[in-house]
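queue> pop job 88
queue> type: inverse folding (structure -> sequence)
queue> payload:
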């Protein structure tokens, strides 16, 4: 009976002790603050580092084998290609707005105080270069021009009688532009030269048995100093073959001509000499007034000669013109009157069939 009484209190005491121990353990756990788990270290590819191991909590039953370290991972390759260059677009430059380029602006240009000085060569270069019949200059400054033309056509001659006949010959031109350029301040001394020899009607001598004219040979050499020049655009037309429908460059200066008349039925050569003024039109035409005498014609004589072109080919090689002459002496003597229509062209034109169309005046070429 005594044994039973002692076992019951002992068992109660052990149970109470277990409960107290359990309560103390729970209180201790609740008093410790929670901590964030530390992140695992980053893996590296270095072979010197120790192999990574998995830490297993002590209260875990499963055991994890250690993972061997990876040592054969290739290193990253360095990029050697440079990046593409940046494309830049330059903005167009714009002129700044100034007072001179504003809309509606009118610029006033003042005339110079001193007038411009005229050049040495007053005539267009085309008149001197667009000719296939130019001769080679000899001992010139390089741009003096020599020309040789054939001339011929219808002629009406009157010296107290009337004769309709022909006139044919050749004319030589020498323009002294190159010499004037080389002469400098002495350029005014350099003249233009012309020489013509033609076969046609020639006046008979006044003291002969009969007045009138007959077939003969005439030669004239003209020397002209073109001292004064001016240009007019009054009658200028574009792309015209009329010489007077172009800008006209006119020149005025003294002139002198020497020559002779010779009748085929006589052996005599009668010399002629005249001097005066000449007005030129682009060098292809002129009007001159001179005074002088011709052997066999009585007294001091006045003479007016004109050559006016009315058609020129576009290259200036073919020219049609009218010619007139009035030679007057004593009132008791008959005047010499001459007028005609003539053609002038280079000799080389005969060897160029493709240019024969220029012989038709005002034709479509």
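queue> result:
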């Amino acid at each position: 009976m005594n044994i039973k009484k002692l076992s019951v209190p002992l068992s109660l005491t052990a149970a109470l002790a277990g409960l107290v121990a359990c309560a103390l353990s729970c209180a201790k756990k609740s008093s410790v603050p929670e901590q964030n788990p530390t992140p695992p270290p980053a893996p590296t590819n270095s072979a010197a580092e120790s192999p990574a191991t998995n830490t297993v909590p002590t209260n875990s039953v499963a055991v994890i084998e250690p993972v061997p370290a990876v040592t054969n991972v290739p290193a990253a390759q360095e990029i050697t290609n440079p990046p593409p260059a940046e494309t830049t677009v330059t903005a167009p430059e714009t002129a700044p707005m100034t007072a001179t380029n504003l809309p509606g602006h009118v610029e006033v240009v003042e005339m110079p105080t001193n007038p411009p000085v005229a050049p040495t060569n007053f005539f267009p270069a085309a008149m001197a270069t667009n000719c296939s019949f130019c001769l080679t200059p000899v001992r010139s400054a390089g741009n003096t021009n020599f020309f040789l033309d054939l001339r011929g056509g219808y002629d009406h001659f009157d010296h107290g009688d009337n004769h309709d006949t022909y006139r044919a010959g050749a004319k030589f031109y020498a323009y002294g532009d190159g010499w004037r350029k080389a002469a400098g301040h002495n350029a005014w001394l350099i003249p233009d030269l012309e020489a013509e020899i033609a076969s046609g009607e020639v006046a008979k001598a006044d003291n002969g048995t009969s007045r009138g004219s007959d077939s003969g040979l005439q030669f004239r050499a003209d020397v002209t100093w073109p001292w004064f020049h001016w240009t007019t655009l009054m009658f200028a037309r574009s792309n015209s073959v009329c010489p007077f429908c172009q800008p006209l460059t006119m020149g005025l200066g003294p002139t002198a001509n020497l020559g002779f008349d010779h009748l085929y039925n006589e052996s005599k050569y009668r010399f002629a000499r005249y001097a005066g003024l000449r007005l030129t039109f682009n060098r292809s035409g002129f009007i001159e007034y001179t005074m002088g005498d011709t052997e066999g014609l009585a007294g001091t004589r006045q003479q007016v000669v004109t050559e006016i072109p009315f058609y020129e080919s576009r290259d200036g090689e073919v020219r049609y013109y009218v010619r007139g002459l009035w030679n007057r002496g004593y009132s008791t003597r008959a005047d010499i009157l001459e007028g005609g229509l003539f053609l002038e062209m280079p000799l080389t034109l005969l060897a160029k069939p493709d240019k024969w169309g220029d012989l038709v005046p005002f034709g479509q070429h």
